[in-house]
Amino acid sequence: MQAPLPPVPVPPPRPLPLWQVLRVARGNTLAVIPQGAFVEPVFAQRSPLGPSFLVSAAEGVKHVLLDAADNYPKAAIQSRLFEAFLGEGVLTSEGEVWRRHRRLMAPAFDPHSVQAAVPTITATAREVIGTWRPGQVIDVSEAMGDLTLKIIARAMFSAAGDDLGPVMERTLRSAEAVLERFGLADFTPGLRGLRARDRERRIAALFTVFDAWIARLIAERRAARGDGDLLDRLIAARDPETGRGLSDREVRDQFVTIFIAGHETTAVALTWTWYLLALHPQVEARLHAALDASPDAPPTYARQVIEEAMRLFPPVPRIPLRQARAEDEICGVRIPKGALVCVAPWVVHRHRDHWDDPERFDPDRFAGERPARYAYLPFGAGPRVCIGASLAMTEAVEVLCEIARRYRLKLVDPGEVGMKPRMTLRPVGRIGMELVAREP
Ligand code: HEM
Fold first, then answer.
1. Residue 172 in this model has a pLDDT that exceeds 60
2. What is the pLDDT of residues 259-317, one digit of tens each?
3. What domain count does the chain have?
4. Is 352 a domain residue?
């Protein structure tokens, strides 16, 4: 069996004691997952938050995300954190409110809308690549972040996007820093509520400038009744069942949600794809050959490369936590009422039951027959599956092809690459890559 590629941590042979879990998780939350989790169907975890289970068997994953989805709403402890800045958007809401939001947003992500976004994606990629020079060393993580930020901001706000994108990004980074200040008090009954309210106040203050800006923009767009970008579509959307649209506050909440869910994830997918390509010259050479043979459209192999990169480095390593409403049983394991249940693509995608030689990077796994539905789920599954999955795949493939047609990205110092998983599988520090021009 192949050892994991750096910077993937080697799983500890046995579960770590709780005090060590907290210490190790501060560096890398995935480094605490023991070997047993990669072979067992349901794995009981040590957690300061009470009983907690990692579910990886296909039938168990299907049960939690699809068949018994009503028994496994998103865990309040996690959703509350995001509500401070996402309000009641489609990512944080539940029940009827969520169903209404999802219906209203669906048309903005249908195949027609995704195709309509392609010219923005390719034009933005070409514009950014046009500023690059052969021999230049870029931080690929930063470069992919800047590019996907530009793309989502333009797709959402058209011309206003270039100004609003960076404001949004700065606001989000500061909000994240507030969220990350977690300590013992957050697990202490009595203090927990005070801490949460303090966090919400700070986050609301950070969003003042952005919220004023977006309120102005929404008012202008309502008056203009356009049908150009995603903002126009959200404003114009009407619920097919009730005929009702979204209020200004709801448009704002959906907006921030899409922004958060839809830009860093794709950047992370692309970043790890470049990293893996640089470490696997045969795969890189095959991608180049496929691109040369298909000058006008992305070749199938480009999609396979992205899919395999997202298997090994799933941009969302853990699907948002679920919490059992009522006692249940998954694959013969009793799940008490209130237990936290996690489906982690990070584990499912490397699980011995689902994959041969899981550490090997091999895009041919995605040639021909698809892997089993519940063995591969970078976008989740069931009713809450990522609404932007098709947009994200299209964007990642287009960007990969635009860049790979012109440049090879050579890793300058593999030893420097690290990861700091949070909600996304973000790399830490710089991933320096040299732009090597490809022969025309
Ligand atoms: C490679 C890129 C992406 C990955 C890997 C990804 C992954 C995910 C995952 C794992 C979930 C959670 C599913 C669950 O809770 O069961 C999710 C939800 C969501 N994603 Fe994505 N996503 C990506 C890109 C995008 C894009 C581009 C958008 C929008 C522009 C987007 C919008 C959303 C929204 C709104 C939700 C919440 C859906 C709901 O709860 O109904 N995502 N995504």
1. yes
2. 888 889 999 999 999 999 999 999 999 999 999 999 999 999 999 999 999 999 999 99
3. 1
4. no
Spatial separation of the C-alpha atoms in residues 78 and 92, rounded to whole Å: 9
d(CA 144, CA 400): 10
d(C-alpha 92, C-alpha 74), whole Å: 8
**Which atom of ligand 1 is found nearest the CA of 382?**
16
Atom of ligand 1 lying closest to residue 152 CA: 30
Asked if 245 and 235 touch (Cβ cutoff 8 Å), the reply is yes
How much distance in Å is there from the Cα of 222 to the middle of ligand 1?
27
Say if 184 falls within a structural domain. Answer: yes
Q: 91 C-alpha vs ligand 1 centroid, how far in Å?
A: 8
> Which residues constitute the domain of residue 286?
76-318+381-437
Q: Which atom of ligand 1 is nearest to the CA of 230?
A: 30
Q: The whole model's pTM is what?
A: 0.94
Residue 247 lies in a domain: yes
Domain membership of residue 412 (yes or no) is yes
Q: Are 46 and 35 in contact (CB under 8 A)?
A: no
Residue 57: the pLDDT is: 97
Distance from the alpha carbon of residue 176 to the mean position of ligand 1, in angstroms: 18
**CA of 345, closest atom in ligand 1:** 10
Concatenating the DSSP letter of every residue in 288-345 gives HHHHHH-TTS--HHHHHHHHHHHHHS-SSSS---EE-SS-EEETTEEE-TT-EEE--H
pLDDT digits (tens, 9 = 90+) for 342-359: 999 999 999 999 999 999
Residue nearest atom 40 in ligand 1 by C-alpha distance: 91
Q: Residues 199-229: pLDDT tens digits?
A: 888 888 888 888 898 899 899 989 987 767 8
Q: Does the CB atom of residue 386 touch ligand 1 within 6 A? A: yes
CA of 174 to the centre of ligand 1 (A): 22
CATH of the domain at 81: 1.10.630.10
Any ligand 1 atom below 6 A from CB of 388? yes
